[in-house]
């Protein structure tokens, strides 16, 4: 059977012969047959161009499967590799910021091919990202949770359900407020807020700092058993909203968020899906409101109305990020250089200072 492209070629040849006949004879006999010139040709199915992405530094020195782009994320034509001998053929080189050494000695030494783009990948907040010298002008594409990154992939999002629910019933609760934390530092503003909040309401605290490391199942069970979960970010920066929020949403707890502005959160999740500490004039006022919701089930369940229409998802770092690199490279051929990486990422993402009310 002839291919679609082959059939299109034959059809064009027939039309061309008819056109020549009309021009030579001046006859209108062939006019009805010339309709083929205006008929839409059969579309030719084209496989997506393959893009080769070289993972130069394993993020946090942890390997991941390189063949999941199509099966897990519906990204076709994406070839991921960690084979550095393919450097000269790679369309993009993916480099994780946290694994770059201070003197840049673990970056590629060979000249960069003209077609190749270097991808700067970072999912840490600016407060937890070292200003390594020499990065300005070195990379072509940014990959981050930031909305204004070239490749923007947040920590999570909400998606519509395939079938809407008439009712959503959250898991059974036996605790009011919980917090799972491993990076517990007294100088963090979230720790100050937590210590003041626990003066007015009991908070069940878990994590490496307080007792022991939790398994994945223990982590899920604890969050699901709590009415409210402290989704407190370790620093306040634009768009820095991590899995702490999306895990709570997915597991059926109401997140209490400490991070960027409410407006920033509302770009990613419904406004009635979470409680923002900035909504209250004081820590005491927040605690009073939590007790009100604890005692009034109807008011509490209002925070789950969105679950009838949506569900929360988290991104799969870093494999999903690598796959999205292929999509970007395929669709963006123009040349660019990140000449102001420091100014954009560090200085351009500062959130306003979170007010703390200790009364």
How would you describe the overall organization of this protein?
- The structure is a single chain.
- With 359 residues, the protein is an alpha/beta fold.
- It folds into 3 domains: 4-37; 51-153 and 318-349, no CATH class; 157-314, Rossmann fold (3-Layer(aba) Sandwich).
- Helices cover 26% and strands 17% of the residues.
- The chain has 10 helices and 13 strands.
- The strands form 3 sheets. A 6-stranded parallel beta sheet has the order 2-1-3-4-5-6, with helices on one face. It has a 5-stranded parallel beta sheet with strand order 9-8-10-11-12, with helices on both faces.
- Mean pLDDT is 87; it is low at 27-34, 36-42 and 351-359.
Number of helices: 10
CATH superfamily of the largest domain: Glycosyl transferase family 10, C-terminal domain
Main sheet record: 6 strands, parallel
Strand content: 15-25%
Quick overview:
This protein is an alpha/beta fold. The protein folds into 3 domains: 4-37; 51-153 and 318-349, no CATH class; 157-314, Rossmann fold (3-Layer(aba) Sandwich), CATH 3.40.50. The chain has 10 helices and 13 strands.
List keywords for this structure.
single chain, alpha/beta, Rossmann fold, 3 domains, 5-stranded parallel beta sheet, 26% helix, globular, transmembrane, membrane
